[in-house]
Amino acid sequence: MIKPPMDFLEAEELVMEKLKREKPRYYQDMCRNFKEDQALYTEKQAFVDEALKLKRDIEKLEKSIWKLHVENRHHLQQVQDFKFALKTFCGWSHK
Prior knowledge:
The chain is an all-alpha fold. The protein has helices at residues 8-22, 24-90. This is YALI0E26763p.
């Protein structure tokens, strides 16, 4: 009497064992396809990881650019204030 499987994994193992015994070529093809799929998944995952890393790097650069832009505006304002103060101090006209 055959004992029925208790869960999905056990049923899957029974099916794989039966395939391995009765249809070895099909079983080998399944294993090869699984390995190829796994390799393709790993390759795609590497691309995704690299894309996410590049996205984070771009976001960091954008923040850095914005920070520099704000600092630059601040420095430009200081230069304008200095020029205005110099003209006022020297009595030059305010044109």
